[in-house]
Write a structure and sequence with these properties.
The protein has helices at about 1-30, 55-70, 90-100, 115-125, 150-170, 185-200, 215-230, 245-250, 280-290, 325-335, 390-395, and strands at about 40-45, 75-80, 105-110, 130-135, 145-150, 170-175, 205-210, 235-240, 255-260, 270-280, 300-305, 310-315, 345-355, 355-365, 365-370, 375-380, 400, 400-405. It contains 11 helices and 18 strands. The strands form 4 sheets. The chain has a 7-stranded mixed beta sheet, with helices on both faces. A 6-stranded parallel beta sheet has the order 2-1-3-4-5-11, with helices on one face. A 3-stranded antiparallel beta sheet has the order 16-15-17. The protein is about 40% helix and about 20% strand.
Length: about 400
């Protein structure tokens, strides 16, 4: 009896274990996971297919890195090129096609103007993930925004421009911007560029020309030519193509590239002192791995910078100013360690004693204006950091020393 009772108890234990095991399996199967071979991703690009430089090329480089690091096949990514971010009907039609006909479960929109159609469709297609670059519209379930602290890289590149301006004896800088102070992304960019230049060359001034478009090669070039003809010796830009750098090369002057390493392009070469670049693969890899693990919500509203490897500047050209790397390394260390940021209310002051370069942080007010002709006022108080929400969304002031850049509101 004891043996039979013992065996009966053992049987009950085994049955109970099996029941829990099956229950556990059932719970796991309820978790929605994408197999690597099943997941399809749709990507909207504003630029043209085959471009090797510029905005869309930078995003495409990131997509390719993501494919490699997540184990997907290239055929699992459906690209849609030359999708204007000003044509909402076309954007909507393109996304619906990606979902309904291509079977995409993730939609990546790389340009600002894609966000409204994406937000509307995210509410309709709740089983699809929508990830939008540079904007602010999102929801709590299946749509987020992603961007980065590109102003940090613009500050670094501005330092190169300021040092080169001192070297060539021309302290007038130029800057072509897609938009002006009506969009925080653009105004924070050229403000940071100017602060970087001024930190190493207090005598610099800067003219900003806006073109009213993210992607317009002809306007980019004509605006650059106008700034160069007006006396700028070095020109930066926040626009999608290599046109600004091309104009500087033709004029026998210097430029700062954007999005991809424009120094490597033969027709402009080392007249491009450095380029402000994105490593979009850092984000895209994190996004798709999270989707594969049914953990999209862990991404949240993504906003990273130099510290995380999302942004940087490229290696300096042979025509870059002397000792530039020494200056840059001091600032990169501060950014990497989180000990300083561009809009922290502290400006950087450098000392160069026989090539021995040091830097200190000085809390001081920064003055600017939000309208052309408006009286200067303190826009950043000494020692007070600007909130991310302002940098990303509501910064509309232009620093003293910059002319142009004011959008009509």
């Amino acid at each position: 009896m004891k043996r039979k009772g013992f065996l009966f108890l053992i049987s009950l234990v085994l049955v109970s274990c099996l029941m829990f095991a099956f229950a556990g399996c059932g719970k796991k199967n309820n978790k929605k996971e994408f197999n690597k071979g099943e997941l399809k991703i749709g990507v909207l690009h504003i630029g043209l297919e085959g471009e090797e430089t510029g905005y869309s090329a930078a995003h495409e480089n990131g997509i390719k890195q993501m494919i490699k690091e997540t184990g997907l096949k290239d055929s699992q990514v459906v690209r849609k090129w030359n999708v204007s971010d000003g044509d909402e009907a076309k954007i909507t039609k393109t996304i619906v096609d990606l979902i309904e006909n291509e079977g995409c479960k993730v939609i990546i929109g790389t340009s600002f103007g894609y966000q409204k159609p994406m937000a509307e469709l995210a509410a309709k297609y709740k089983d699809v993930i929508f990830s939008h670059g540079t904007g602010y519209m999102h929801n709590e379930t299946n749509m987020n925004n992603y961007f980065g602290r590109i102003y940090q890289a613009r500050y670094l590149s501005g330092m190169i421009a300021g040092l080169k301006a001192k070297e060539i004896g021309n302290n007038k800088l130029g800057y072509v911007s897609a938009y002006g102070n009506s969009i925080a992304e653009t105004v924070s960019g050229f403000n940071a560029f100017y602060l970087g230049a001024k930190s190493v060359n207090p005598d610099v001034t800067m003219d900003v020309s806006t073109i009213g478009s993210w992607f317009d090669p002809a306007k980019e070039k004509s605006s650059a030519e106008a700034l160069l003809n007006a006396g700028a010796g070095i020109i930066g830009h926040h626009s999608d193509t290599i046109s600004v750098c091309d104009a500087a090369k033709t004029a026998g002057k210097f430029s700062i590239g954007y999005n991809t390493d424009m120094n490597k392009v033969g027709k402009v070469g080392d007249s491009v002192l450095t380029s402000v670049i994105w490593h979009w693969g850092v984000y895209y890899t994190q996004l798709i791995k999270a989707v594969q693990n049914n953990d999209f919500k862990s991404i949240g509203q993504y906003y990273k910078g130099y510290k995380e490897g999302l942004i940087d500047i490229t290696a300096l050209s042979d025509k870059a100013p002397k000792n530039a790397d020494k200056y840059l390394n001091l600032v990169k260390d501060l950014l990497k360690e989180g000990k300083w940021d561009v809009f922290s209310g502290k400006t950087l002051k450098f000392q160069d004693v026989d090539g021995n370069i040091t830097v200190e942080q000085v809390a001081e007010d920064i003055k600017g204006r939000s309208k052309n002709g408006e009286a200067l006022r303190t826009v950043i108080k000494a020692g007070e950091s600007v909130a991310d929400g302002v940098i990303q969304g509501s910064m509309d002031y232009i620093f003293d020393g910059i002319t142009g850049g004011f959008d009509k509101k």
